[in-house]
Here is the input.
Amino acid sequence: MKIAIASDHAGYRLKIGVAQHLRSREVDYIDFGCYSEERVDYVDVAVKALESIAKGECDRAILVCGTGLGMGIVANKFKGIRATPCWDEYVTEMSRKHNNSNCLTLGGRVLPLDEAIHLVDIWLDTPFEGDRHEARLKKIAELEEKNFKIEEDRNELF
Ligand code: RB5
Here is the structure.
């Protein structure tokens, strides 16, 4: 599994800590920026990471902004992305078990690094439960089909 990671300036430090943790776990990742604490729009960096999933280059994403909210909003505009802002153990566990989250969003201004790393581990290690949740995700996928206007070639990627 390859993880796309990205942050804006507000999430930069937390992302660097998360990246270090991924390396220590030998989890493969690509960092799509930003690469300093210089101000940048979270939308622009998120798009780069999410495009890599659309292209099949990465499998899941971890996106960090100040709150995790902006990144979550952007990510959920992408077909096939189930982005979940997570802030505690329970929510993170459920994001995998029930929602099959493929995009974890974290808040660099609201989470200390040790807590964020703990949530990353839960998110990486918790499997999707399937069953009744599968049917619910199918309904979401059907909504995407109905509501998302996407280019023909992008459609083939999912
Ligand atoms: C940047 O100031 C901040 O708005 C951004 O990091 C994020 O929290 C938006 O949702």
